[in-house]
Inverse folding.
């Protein structure tokens, strides 16, 4: 089979830090023994958490769904092994802010007994809707880092190019590399499924050229499997340059197109998936296996045997560090992710989740820890390496001076926080930290403005309503007076007369009294429903509080409370939609009025 | 808790400054070789003054003295001044220049990174307008026209203004100045016969300029500076010289502009001071062209023999504006944002 020639493009900027990958790629992917306790965060993806389906004390099997994906942006979570649910409680989760979130605690029984997996044998001939359902039910969200629900991403229409991201540009991390080396055939099948679902014309698998073995393995898999679809798949070597694995950067390299600022790749007909995701899709569709484990790199000089592990989700990282021989006395920094975009570990009981690609345990002096930052000398090295072509030093000035408007006009929100600027900064200024801070502040400002805008609108709406009621009252009085006169005189020409005072009031044009009447009814009904909604909101809030309290205390009443909460929520939704309908009804009347 | 990235590249600000110092060496040593130890004495005076003043101000401002001194930026300022100033000024002028540069040029604005103007050029310009005679007659004659001053002679001239030393035999005007004052009076061929121009372009000066060019090449090679500013400075001046100075009988020819004054050291070492220059690529180009044009304008139609200091300072004024209107096109955007910031009035 001939490989199509793909013309490569260059993304602006970028850096070439030492890759440090050989350490963890010298050993095959290993399987650590089960930890004594697995901690499964209810939410491991970008979106909203699903509903917990299990109770404390329940016996579960491997692959059994613990959290469902009924809500639109939720992703299912499955038991990574068989055992007993010991608690549902808050715990530290891998998050840059070091926050706590709801987690399901699972005590393995050591049997690793799984539910019966049922895949689609002829998956390439199966109905796409069924495949998407299967992917959703298998709890797959992007394994590359962002953790976006995969089935939702795959629903994008008009995709021309499917890009499979195997660049893995960040130093130390080699999880995708090892996955491609060892399981290239499964990945290829996953790619074919993705191709079928996206209906893309072409698939480009971008792999950095510092992974010759992975490239070779992928090409071999492609050689072996010759059918109509595989000729659309191209394995493309891309130059090793950080951050080539960034979604926008890889798209630029492979297609020459720039994803417009603030838009998704789908807007230019491109869809990007990580190789790990492709693998997980194959496992789910072909074998019926939900996502219960992932490949994680354990790297760094403080480990005696750095390597890649297939880790059951929920395994505390301390367990893995122990397995790979952590020298506690040498340890300097413990980082989740790579050295350029990772974040520090708060406690070693933090679990591995669907997006944890690397645990980095560095020894003293392995990474140059910045000293005290010196003043910016505007040398512009940051500008040269910025892949978003921003002016990092200007953004830094604006951030320190809290000139948010200027920062925004210099496109602060196009910053992908890759860290290239800070990496080269001769003054060792933690630039990305400033950008994160500035972004956070601006977002907060925006939220506050929105809130005050809403309040103002409400206030104006109220004033309008009062005004309207006043006019309506006047109209009613007038109408009554007219009927009185009508009754008295019984003259037919009285009708045009009765409009005169209304016109002179100048507020209402040709509104008939009937419509005023209906308007009033609408107003009253709206008021009533608003009151109901407020009450219901209170009730839902209280119910949630009770439910969460029960959940954290591990009470058996939790599930009952959950049902109550759900009921209240449904009621609230009904009320909200009713109000929606009423608003849309009353709109035309309001339009006439003005 | 620090946030990512946790990894840094090698070159730090002090290292950058030391590389600049190292890159100045070829030019500086050539200066000493051709023009004698006046440059040695002035360098010592300036380095000492700059460090002492910097330390003093830092102490008053309650900033870490030793830690900040280590960034070596005061040394770079002092070294640039020593290279740019004539070698036979009275000692107090060097002390004054060093103090003004560090105190008024830099520390009063808040120290390194906050100064809108090139500190060395602030001090140079001050001396130039305050002591025009000393600044135009205290230049040393190159090797071949005079015996370069040894340390003792140079010290006696600088510290004592020693009447026993035949200063006239050692110093004079620069080749640029000489040509400019003779152009229009004599024909080009006649002017070139003057001994100060030597066999090629300008005796001694030409080698100094080229040696600074080599140092500049080192900075480019180490990626401490980019080519934009130096190339554009030379380009700007060259275009002007070709447009207005094509007649060698009436104006200074282009190669003397290049090699007869401080253009090369200015283009590679002074104009490229990142703090006071624009940071965008396009901004750097305009900045360089502006300096080149202004150097020509001042040299050709102004009263000052060399013009790098004024040209650089004038263009320093424009740096913030240039940064604003030359923003690059951000990735994923249709076109660059080059308008002035619109401030929303609420």
């Amino acid at each position: 089979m001939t490989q199509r020639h793909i013309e490569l493009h260059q993304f602006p900027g970028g850096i070439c830090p030492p890759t440090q990958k050989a350490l963890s790629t010298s050993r095959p992917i290993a399987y650590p023994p089960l930890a004594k306790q697995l901690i499964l965060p209810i939410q491991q993806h970008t979106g909203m958490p699903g509903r917990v389906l299990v109770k404390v004390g329940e016996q579960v099997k491997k692959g059994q769904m613990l959290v469902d994906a009924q809500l639109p942006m939720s992703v299912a979570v499955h038991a990574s092994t068989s055992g007993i649910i010991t608690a549902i409680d808050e715990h530290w989760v891998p998050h840059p802010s070091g926050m706590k979130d709801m987690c399901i605690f699972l005590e393995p029984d050591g049997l690793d007994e799984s539910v019966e997996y049922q895949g689609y044998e002829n998956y390439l001939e199966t109905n796409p809707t069924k495949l998407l359902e299967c992917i959703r039910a298998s709890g797959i969200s992007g394994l590359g880092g962002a953790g976006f629900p995969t089935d939702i991403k795959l629903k994008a229409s008009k995709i021309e190019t499917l890009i499979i991201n195997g660049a893995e540009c960040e130093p130390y991390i080699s999880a995708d590399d090892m996955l491609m080396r060892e399981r290239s055939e499964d990945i290829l099948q996953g790619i074919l499924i993705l191709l079928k679902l996206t209906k893309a014309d072409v698939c480009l698998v971008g792999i950095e050229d510092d992974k010759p073995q992975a490239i070779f393995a992928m090409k071999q898999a492609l050689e072996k499997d010759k059918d109509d679809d595989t000729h659309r798949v191209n394995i493309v070597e891309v130059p090793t340059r950080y951050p080539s694995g960034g979604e926008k950067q890889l798209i630029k390299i492979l297609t020459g197109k720039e994803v417009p600022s603030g838009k998704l790749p789908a807007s230019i007909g491109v869809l990007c998936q990580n190789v790990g995701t492709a693998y997980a899709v194959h496992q789910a569709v072909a074998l019926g296996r939900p996502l219960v484990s992932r490949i994680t790199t354990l790297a760094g000089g403080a480990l005696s045997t750095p390597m890649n592990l297939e880790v059951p989700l929920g395994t505390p990282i301390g367990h893995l560090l122990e397995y790979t021989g952590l020298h506690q006395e040498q340890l300097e920094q413990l980082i989740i992710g790579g050295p350029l975009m990772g974040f520090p570990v708060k406690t070693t009981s933090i679990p591995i989740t669907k997006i944890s690609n690397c645990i980095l345990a560095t020894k003293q002096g392995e990474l140059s820890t910045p000293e005290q930052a010196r003043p910016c000398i505007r040398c512009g090295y940051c500008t040269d390496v910025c892949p978003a072509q921003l002016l990092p030093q200007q953004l830094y000035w604006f951030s320190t001076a809290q000139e948010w408007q200027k920062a925004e006009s210099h496109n602060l929100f196009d910053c992908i926080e890759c860290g290239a600027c800070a990496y080269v900064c001769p003054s060792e200024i933690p630039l990305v930290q400033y950008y994160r801070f500035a972004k956070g502040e601006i977002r907060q400002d925006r939220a506050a403005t929105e809130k005050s805008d809403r309040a103002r609108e409400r206030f104006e709406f109220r004033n309008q309503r009062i005004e309207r009621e006043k006019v309506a009252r006047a109209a009613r009085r007038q109408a009554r007076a007219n009927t009185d006169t009508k009754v008295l005189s019984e003259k037919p020409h009285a009708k045009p007369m009765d409009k005169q005072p209304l016109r002179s009031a100048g507020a209402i044009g040709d509104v008939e009294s009937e419509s005023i009447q209906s308007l009033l009814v609408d107003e009253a009904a709206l008021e009533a429903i608003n009151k109901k909604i407020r009450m219901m909101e209170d009730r839902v809030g209280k119910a949630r509080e009770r439910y969460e309290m029960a959940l954290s205390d591990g009470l058996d009443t939790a599930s009952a409370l959950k049902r109550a909460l759900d009921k209240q929520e449904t009621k609230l939704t009904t009320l909200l939609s009713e109000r929606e309908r009423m608003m849309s009804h009353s709109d035309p009347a309001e339009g006439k009025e003005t | 808790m620090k946030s990512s990235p946790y990894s840094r590249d090698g070159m730090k600000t002090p290292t950058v400054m030391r590389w600049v110092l190292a890159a100045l060496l070829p030019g500086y040593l050539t200066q000493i070789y051709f023009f004698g130890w006046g440059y040695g004495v002035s360098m010592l005076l300036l380095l000492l003054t700059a460090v002492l003043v910097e330390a003093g101000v830092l102490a008053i401002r309650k900033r870490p003295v030793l830690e900040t001194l280590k960034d070596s930026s005061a040394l770079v300022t002092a070294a640039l001044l020593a290279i740019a100033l004539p070698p036979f000024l009275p000692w107090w002028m060097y002390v004054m220049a060093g103090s003004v540069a560090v105190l008024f040029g830099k520390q009063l604005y808040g120290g390194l990174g906050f100064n809108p103007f090139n500190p060395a050029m602030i001090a140079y310009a001050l001396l130039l307008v305050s002591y025009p005679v000393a600044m135009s007659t205290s230049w040393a004659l190159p090797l071949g026209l005079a015996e370069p001053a040894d340390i003792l002679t140079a010290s006696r001239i600088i510290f004592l203004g020693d009447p026993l030393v035949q200063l006239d035999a050692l110093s004079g005007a620069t080749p640029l100045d000489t040509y400019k004052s003779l152009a229009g009076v004599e024909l080009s061929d006649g002017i070139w016969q003057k001994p100060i121009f030597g066999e090629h372009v300008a005796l001694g000066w030409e080698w100094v300029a080229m040696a600074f060019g080599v140092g500049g090449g080192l900075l480019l090679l180490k990626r401490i500076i980019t080519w934009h500013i130096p190339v554009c400075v030379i380009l700007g001046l060259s275009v002007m010289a070709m447009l207005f100075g094509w007649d060698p009988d009436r104006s200074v020819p282009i190669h003397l502009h290049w090699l007869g004054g401080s253009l090369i050291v200015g283009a590679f070492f002074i104009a490229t001071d990142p703090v006071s220059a624009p940071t965008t690529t396009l901004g750097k180009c305009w900045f360089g062209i502006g300096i080149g044009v202004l150097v020509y304008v001042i040299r050709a139609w102004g009263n000052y023999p060399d013009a790098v200091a004024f040209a650089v300072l004038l263009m320093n004024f424009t740096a913030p504006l240039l940064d604003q209107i030359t923003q690059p096109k951000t990735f994923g955007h249709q076109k660059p944002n080059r308008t002035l910031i619109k401030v929303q009035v609420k």
Strands of chain B lie at 139-140, 171-172. The radius of gyration of chain B is 21 Å.
